[in-house]
Amino acid sequence: MAPRSDEAQAFFHAVYSAVQEIPPGKVTSYGHIAKLVGTPQRPRQVGVCLKHLPSDPSERFNQYNVPWQRVINAKGAISLRSRPSAAHNQAVALEAEEVTVTTGALGELLVDFGLYGWFPRILPSEAAQGMVPSDEDDTEGDEE
DNA sequence: GGATTGACGGTCG
DNA sequence: ACGACCGCCAATC
C-alpha cells in the first residue's frame, strides 16, 4: 500500500498536516508549504503529495479532510496538470469558499489572493528573527 | 531496474 | 521583464 520509505511517508504526513492548517477562504503556495515542513527546496514534492492524496475517506489524510484546493503556485495561479479539468475542478472548489478565480489572457486560472492574503503570512523562522515583511516595503508605492 | 515525468520555485542569461 | 535551466525526488513508464 505504501511503496514509499518511512522518511518519505513522514514528508507526506507533514505536508498534509500543513495544508490542513490553511483556513477556508485563504490560499498559499507549494513553496510556502515546502518551507513550513522544513524542505524549502522541494516544492515539487508538495505537489506530488497532493497529487497522490488518498481518495479513500478511511485514510487519515484524504482529499476530503485536506484542503488541497487552497494550494496554488507562486504565480498566484492554479497549476496546470495532466488533466486540465482537474485545474478547473480546483477553481470550482475555491469559488465555493468565496475565493475569486479569474481567467487570464492565456486561459490560466488566476486566484485573487491579494484580496484574501496568503497563509501563513509570516513564517515561524521570520517571526523568531523579528523580521516582519508586513507588505512590499519597496519605494514603488504602486498601491494605497 | 534504468530513464522520464511532474499539482514548483529560484537563479541565470 | 521574460525565458531557459537546474535542483529535487516519488511515481510512473
UniProtKB/TrEMBL annotation:
Biological processes annotated in GO: DNA repair
One Pfam entry name: DNA_binding_1
GO molecular function, one term: catalytic activity
Domain Methylated-DNA-[protein]-cysteine S-methyltransferase DNA binding, first and last residues per copy: 11-99
Keyword terms: DNA damage
InterPro entries named among the record's database cross-references: ATL_DNA_repair (IPR052520), MethylDNA_cys_MeTrfase_DNA-bd (IPR014048), MethylDNA_cys_MeTrfase_DNAb (IPR036217), WH-like_DNA-bd_sf (IPR036388)
CDD domains assigned: ATase (cd06445)
Gene3D superfamilies, per database record: Winged helix-like DNA-binding domain superfamily/Winged helix DNA-binding domain
PANTHER family, per database record: 6-O-METHYLGUANINE DNA METHYLTRANSFERASE, ALKYLTRANSFERASE-LIKE PROTEIN 1
Protein name in UniProt: DNA binding methylated-DNA--cysteine S-methyltransferase
Species of origin: Trichocladium antarcticum
